[in-house]
Amino acid sequence: MAEDTGRGTSRRAFLRGSVAAGGAVLGAGMAQAADPDPLITTVQPWAQGFGDGVDATPYGLPIRFEEDVIRRNVEWLTADTISSINFTPIHALDGTITPAGCAFERHHSGAIELAKEDYRLMINGLVETPMVFSYADLERFPRENHVYFCECAANSGMEWAGAQLNGAQFTHGMIHNMEYSGIPLRTLLAEAGWSGETEGKWVYVEGADASSNGRSIPMEKALDDCLVAIKANGEALRKEHGYPARLVVPGWEGNMWVKWIRRIEVMDGPVESREETSKYTDTLADGTSRKWTWVMDAKSVVTSPSPQMPITHGQGPVVITGMAWSGHGRITRVDVSKDGGKTWETARLAREGENKALTRFYLDTVWEGEEWLLQSRAIDETGYVQPTKAQLREVRGLNSIYHNNAIQTWWIKSNGEAENVEVS
Amino acid sequence: MAEDTGRGTSRRAFLRGSVAAGGAVLGAGMAQAADPDPLITTVQPWAQGFGDGVDATPYGLPIRFEEDVIRRNVEWLTADTISSINFTPIHALDGTITPAGCAFERHHSGAIELAKEDYRLMINGLVETPMVFSYADLERFPRENHVYFCECAANSGMEWAGAQLNGAQFTHGMIHNMEYSGIPLRTLLAEAGWSGETEGKWVYVEGADASSNGRSIPMEKALDDCLVAIKANGEALRKEHGYPARLVVPGWEGNMWVKWIRRIEVMDGPVESREETSKYTDTLADGTSRKWTWVMDAKSVVTSPSPQMPITHGQGPVVITGMAWSGHGRITRVDVSKDGGKTWETARLAREGENKALTRFYLDTVWEGEEWLLQSRAIDETGYVQPTKAQLREVRGLNSIYHNNAIQTWWIKSNGEAENVEVS
C-alpha cells in the first residue's frame, strides 16, 4: 500500500493506494490502475437471482468459507478422544464472547448425554437438610447473569519447556468466555440449611460422568460467586460443556468448573482427591508441589498476527489484536511490545475490563516489513503484571504443567509469517 | 410444592416439599416419601462407561434434547422462503446474548453466499475520493466492539389488529442481540474524504443481494455510531446475517442494517427508495403515512411463562423472566403486572442496562394456581414508558404494520398454560 501523499491527514490517506481517483475505482490489491474490476462493474450472480432460504437449517452453522474456524485437538497431547482437549480457534475470533460451537472443552471420560428428566443435584454432608434438586427445581430459584472466562489450568502448559506449538489456538486456546445464567451456589446451600454455624468450611463437588472429576472448594469461594449454570450465551449448555448444569467457579481453574454437576457435599476439610493431588498441582524445581493453586493469574496473548494468522496484505496499516484476562478481577491495561519486551506501547481496550471476563485489546499500527518479536502483557486491578517466561521459571522451575501465564512471543518475519519463539 | 413450615426463613424452605429429611432424599415431583430414586441410588449408564468424543463435530451443535430451540417461520406471513422471516426462540433463551445459530433473520431475496475474495465495498457520491475497499482492507482499519440489539420494524406487527400468534417467539422473536466487531462508518467516510463541508448530508446504503434493500440514513446517525461489522459474537457473520460484512445501525429498525453491504453513497438528500416509502412507513388512521420512523422505541416482553413456556411444575416459586430494550439508549426499569396492568411490581434487572442492547429482567415470585394477566413494561433513560395497545392505537390507528411496541399480555390459566390475549 502507498505511503501518505501528504495531501491529507494520515487517516485520510490510510488506504489511498487502494483507489484510483475519479470514476475508475479499484479494490486494494487488485490489478493495475485502469483495469475495471468486474466485481464492481458487472452484475454478479448473487445479485441476480435468489439466495438460499434459511428454513432448511433451522439451527444455523457458519458459512462453508469458515470451515477452518473450528475446535482442534493436539493428537499427541492426550491419549484418545475420551480424554481429549479441543481448543478454541482464538486466532480467528474477535470481540470477547466465544460462540459455544467453537468454545474449548476438555473432558476426562467423554462428553455424556444426560437428559433434564434424568438430572439430579444432591446437596449433602454438613447441612441441616440434605436435598436433591431436579432440573425443574433449579429453574425455580432466583438466577443471575454474568460473563466469565473459563481457562484450563493446563492452558499453555506445553510451553513451559520451550516454544512448542505453532499457533495461538494451541498455545492459548484452552479458554472460552460466555454469558452464564445460573443459580448462586450460596442460594442452594442456604436452601439445604447450611448456616455458617456448622463445621462445614469446604464443599466437595462432583460430576455425573464416570470420571466424576471431584474437587474441593473452600466455602468462602462457594458463597462468593460460584454459580450452578443452566445456560451459556443464552441457550442451554452444550453437551460437551456439561448439559444440563455445570458449576461456574469464576476466575479459578477450569477443572473446578465441574460439568454435569450431580453432588455438592459440605465437609469440614478438603478431600485431597486425585484431581487436586496427583493432578492440578505444580511440581517445583526441588520436587515439592504447590497445591490449591486455584486462581488463574493475569494473562494475555496476541491472537493476530500469529502463526495461524500471518500478515498477508503487505506493508502498511495493520491491526494487532488479542485478549487479556485475570482471575483476580478486571484487566486495567495491556501493553504490546514489538521488540521482545525492550519497549512497550499501551494497547487500546475495546471496552472497560470486566470482572473475571475476557478483555479485547487492539494496537492500530503500521508494519513496513520489519521483523517483530511481538508480545503482550496484561495488568489487572490488583496491579499484578503478567510475568516473562524467565521470571516464571525462576520461581517455579521447569517441572510444571499448569498455570503458565507467561508472556508469549511471536516472531513476525519480513514475509509476514509468524512463528512461536522464546526470547532470552 | 409444600408451604413454608415456619421452621426457617421462606428462602430456606423454598423447596422443602421436594425433600425428605435425613438420608432418604427425593427429587421434587418424584414419587412418594420412602421410594428410593434410582437416579440417585444406582449407578447410571452415563457414569459407567465413556461418553462421546467431541472431535467428530468440530463445530458443535446443541444437544439433541434441545432440538425444539430453533428459529421458526410463520408460513402465512411471507410468500415463500426467499423472502422469509425466521424468528428467534426467545421463549427458551435466557441472558442477553443471542447465539447466531438461532438468531432471527429476515431477507428479501434469499441469503446469498458471498466469499471474502469477491467482496467489495464502494463509497461514492459527494466525497473527495470515491473508494472501493476489499474485505482485507476493512480488516486493517481500527475497529470497535459493541453489543447491540437488532429488531425488525415489523416485530409484533401481526398483533396490531388483535392477539394473533400464540408464542413469544412469533409475537416478539424478530430480534437478536450480539456483540459486534466492526469499523465505524465515520472512519470509512473520512478515508473517502467526506469533510462535512460538502452537501452530503445523507448516505444511501445498499446490499449485494438481488433486492439491494437500499436505505437512506442521515449523516448525523452515520457519523454517530454506525458500524460496518465483520464479526458477531466473536466469529464471522453467518451467511444469513450478511457475511462477510453488514451495516449495524444501533437502535434503529433492522431493515436499515443492510446485509452484504456493497455501497455507501454520500448524497444531498434521501433517495425515498421502495424500502422507505411503500414499505417501512406507518399508515395512520386518516390514510397519511409517518415516514423516517427509524428508532425502535422502548419495548419489553415476558418470555417465560408464555404460551410456549407454560408453568408445568405446579404451584409455588416461579421465576418470571423477559427482556427489554430501547433504541434511545439504556433501559432503567422494567415493571411486571399480574393483573393486566392494574398493579405493577418492579422487576430485577440482571445487570445495569446497556446502551441499545437487550436487558434481562426477573421477577422471583410465587404462583398458587391463580389466573394472571401477565404484562411487562419497559422504561428507558429518556423517561419514556412503553405504552399499552390502546394508547398506541389511539395515536396510530389500526392500519399499521411496523413499530408496534405495545405492552404484551399473556393469560396464565389455572392449569399453568398461557395464551396470547388483549386486555381492554
From TrEMBL, chains A, B:
N-terminal signal peptide: 1-33
Domain of life: Bacteria
Residue stretches making up the Moybdenum cofactor oxidoreductase dimerisation domain: 290-409
InterPro entries, sorted: Ig_E-set (IPR014756), MoCF_OxRdtse_dimer (IPR005066), Mopterin_OxRdtase_euk (IPR008335), OxRdtase_Mopterin-bd_dom (IPR000572), OxRdtase_Mopterin-bd_sf (IPR036374), Sulfite_DH_SoxC (IPR030835), TAT_signal (IPR006311)
SUPFAM superfamilies documented for this protein: E set domains, Oxidoreductase molybdopterin-binding domain
GO molecular function: heme binding; molybdenum ion binding; molybdopterin cofactor binding; sulfite oxidase activity
Keyword match Oxidoreductase: yes
Pfam families associated with the record: Mo-co_dimer, Oxidored_molyb
Cofactor entry: Mo-molybdopterin
Entry annotated with the keyword Metal-binding: yes
Keywords in alphabetical order: Metal-binding, Molybdenum, Oxidoreductase, Signal
PANTHER family: SULFITE OXIDASE, MITOCHONDRIAL, SULFITE REDUCTASE
Ranges of residues in domain Oxidoreductase molybdopterin-binding: 114-272
GO biological process: sulfur compound metabolic process
Protein name as it appears in the record: Sulfur dehydrogenase subunit SoxC
